[in-house]
Amino acid sequence: MGNFHEIDFHQVGSTKSGDAITLRYQINDIATIHIVDGGYQDTGDALTKHIQTHYGNPVRIDHVVVTHNDGDHAGGLRRILENFEVGELWMLRPWLYAEELLPRFSRYTNADNLKKRLKEIYSNLAALEELANEKGVPIRESFQGTKIGAFTVVAPSRERFLNLVVSSEKTPDATTEALESKADFLKAAFIEAVSYIRALWGDENFSNEATSAENEMSIVQYAYLNNKKILLTGDAGRDALAEAKGYAPLVGLVLPGIDTFQVPHHGSRRNLSSELLDQLVGEKLGQPVKEGESKFNAIISASKEDVHHPRKAVIRAMKHRGAIVLTTEENNGWTRISAGDAPTRPNMQPAKDVPYPEDQEE
User: Fold this and answer.
1) Cα torsion for 335, 337, 342, 346, to the nearest 10°?
2) Where are the alpha helices (DSSP H) in the chain?
3) How many Cβ atoms are within 10 Å of 193's Cβ, its own excluded?
4) Where are the domains of the chain?
5) What per-residue confidence (pLDDT) applies to 188?
6) Which pLDDT belongs to residue 306?
7) Pairing, β 60-65 against β 85-90
8) Residue 189: CB partners within 8 Å, gap ≥ 6?
9) What are 214-229's pLDDT values in tens digits?
């Protein structure tokens, strides 16, 4: 078997969407299994079964990457650590920098107390750290420039990550549980009030609101495999993607031009802009591409039960740039992207391209 790669974007069954990606790639007869996020806790069993069934029933997973703390990304990875030998666990742990960050927190004069509080705030990462230590799994930091197998981390930089920890609404100086609950309620009410309007080809309406600091902390990874450019984004926001774009020349990534693009944050309007997409994947086209002439694959992880994702404006923006848009909600269990001498799977059906929406959010 020659060089290949296969990437599976998995359904995460919930009323909220989540991310779970499994990858296998072979370079010069060396195969690597690489997992990025694991959905919610109950997603872990499905991931385990998928890997055992389709990746040759391995004992070992080479790399496990947690893009950020959110439970819809980190939860299911507990089962991966329990069910397999893991070569390396990659994640960013804010409490490791408690002493360095201490002067930036007015309520704390003791680094150990700040460290304890940061572990409570980023509890999903702390739980994975505890389990990894029990299992003897090495934990690696994954700032910009880090190599993870065939992938390179293109965001976040160390400086931007630490600034996000300080500015996050979850930090000890910024919030209380009551304020968090009120903010969540108001946000939910706003989401429910969204209405739609018909729009002409090329019109795009992204949100003026920014995504959260926690989403901006997401680890963004790039790889060039089988002559294909792959960008995995987690829940990265506009700042993270702009930082990744700026770093791209240092890893040989010529932009615009991505072959497999993970649309961040389940297709949210708050994570992208028209200008950023022009720079990452290409400028808007004057008309839809013809069948068989698509420019790239845009993958959106979205649950069938999630009525808020993906946003129509985001699907439209991908189509405007010539994408085949694939969502995990449209396919049975997972959406697979492969290239090279990838193994075939019995009874595998082609993924469905999401149709172009004639309307979008106001």
Assistant:
1) 30
2) 43-54, 71-74, 77-83, 98-101, 111-121, 123-135, 158-167, 177-192, 213-216, 238-247, 274-280, 312-320
3) 8
4) 4-343+351-361
5) 47
6) 77
7) parallel
8) none
9) 999 999 999 999 999 9
Q: Give me the chain's average pLDDT, please.
A: 91
Q: Which of 41, 67, 27, 44 is nearest to 262 (CA)?
A: 67
**Which residues are paired to 60 by β-bridges?**
85
Amino acid at 272: L
Position 1 scores a pLDDT of: 63
Class of domain 4-343+351-361 as given by CATH: alpha beta
Q: How far apart are CA 301 and CA 92, in angstroms?
A: 22
pLDDT surpasses 60 at 13: yes
3-state DSSP assignment of residue 97: helix
Cβ neighbours of residue 151 closer than 8 Å, sequence gap 6 or more: 34, 221, 222, 223, 230, 232
Q: Are 166 and 108 in contact (CB under 8 A)?
A: no
